[in-house]
Amino acid sequence: MTSITQTSTSSRHAENDSADARRPRRVGQEEKRRRIVNAARRVFTTLGYDRASMNDIAVEAGVSKPTLYVYFEHKEALFAALVEELRATLPECNAILDADVEDVRGTLIRHASRLVVKLTRPDHVAFMRMVIGAANAFPELGRMTYAAGPEVGRERVAQFFAEQSRRGRLNVPDPYLAASQFLSLSQATFAKQMLFNVGEVPTEAEIRAYVEPAVDMFLSIYGVRESAGPEQKIAVAS
Question: Which residues form a coiled coil (predicted)?
Fold first, then answer.
């Protein structure tokens, strides 16, 4: 006679075996989805969003069209997946904006430098060119990308400025205005040069040589000034 314990153990083993059998399938599905999304990025940036077709993407991904439609119903869904990837990369750039840091200058330099590196990556530049090229005919693409990228970044910087002002390390009356000014001041030149295919990807030394004076210029307006005898100095850590 089979004991209850034996039956229970056999049942658990069967469940584990079933889960193990499903796991490779899930991994395979995730890998295939990733292959399709990467293929869509290449097709969109090469042909442009309006000219790209689901057939082009299926061929590039090495899958059949029926398989492609299992994962994505239309190319708008594929574009949304790419935008979500853009959104997912922002926490890495914004993680350094910790409200507890006392070295505001150093934090802003590191944040701006990371952002320049991200914005001048060839794959990012190609994607943004594609979005700009399609935004007139497909305005929702532009709005979606802006909301997931630049707007999220500005929101996080504004929050950082507001908190640093509350703690007395900055004097920023309008955090959102200051965030827009800071982001334009610290990275716009490099980003525009890459978008217009002017120059090369900046080196680490070039980024630092540009970003440090930009941060100092920003802090000359929004840094907290303390009396130092007859002179005034900006109270920020170097």
Answer: none
Cβ contact 63:125 at 8 Å: no
Confidence (pTM): 0.76
Please give the CATH topology (third level) of the domain spanning 1-73. Answer: Arc Repressor Mutant, subunit A (1.10.10)
Q: Are 56 and 43 in contact (CB under 8 A)?
A: yes
What is the fold of 89-238? Answer: Tetracycline Repressor; domain 2 (1.10.357)
Q: Which residues fall within 8 angstroms of residue 195, CB to CB, at 6 or more apart?
A: 125, 128, 129, 132
Query: Mean pLDDT lowest for which of 18-32, 95-109, 171-185, 190-204?
Result: 18-32
